[in-house]
Amino acid sequence: MARPFLTLIACLVAMPAWAEDDSAHFDFGGDAFRAGLSVTHDAAGADDLFMAGDRVTGRADITGSAFFAGRKVTMAGAIGGDVYAVGEEVAIQGDVSGDASLLGRTVSVARVGGDLRAAASELQVNGNIGGNAIIAGRDVVFDAAVGGDVTLAARNVDWGEAASIAGRLIIHEEELGDLEVPERVASVDRVERREVEGREVERQQEPRRSRWRSSIGDFLFEVIVVTILAVLIAALMPTRLAKMQRQVLARPIHNLWLGFLS
Question: Are 148 and 250 contained in the same domain?
Fold first, then answer.
């Protein structure tokens, strides 16, 4: 089991050295599938959209749901269903009718008709949210009206002029009261503050362990991204992947070195 998986990872690492222009385009049953180093979807009429690559760009509206994995993910078209996206940079610029689940280093999202679940180091919520929102980030720009409840964990929050929360605001913070919330965003009686348990003890007694946890978290995130890419590319590019596998097995050290340099 380990050898095929390692071979697949090696293929992904070395891909820039072999196939700079290779990409897979596949449409079936109204759904669109795209995979490659730099892929774009701009054809009208798609239902669900599946895309994986280094640079992933969607320009056309779709009627169904969207599934994105890449280093830089941009979706300019409207999404009729839900959106699931993971990457280093994720920008959902078009309106989302359903729910949005987003994970990245930097994430921005426009209007979401359903619920929003987003986690990023730098997070921008630029459009109204029809349902509830779970938001986790270091620096958050919150410029949206939320129709439901909001759960928020952030170090810094920039409340925009459009920011308002119709339901409850639950804030998770290390020191209760650290995060200021304007009255126009949520009245005091609808704000609930919860202390993050054990954070102060960890900082005092285990600073090195905390740094290790941060590093491990970054590593696991990268593994998740690579795994998602691997699964999608394996499904969309079986012929190309088989050829790449033979090349890796024939010259493994050479190809891994080329992938590292690229």
Answer: no
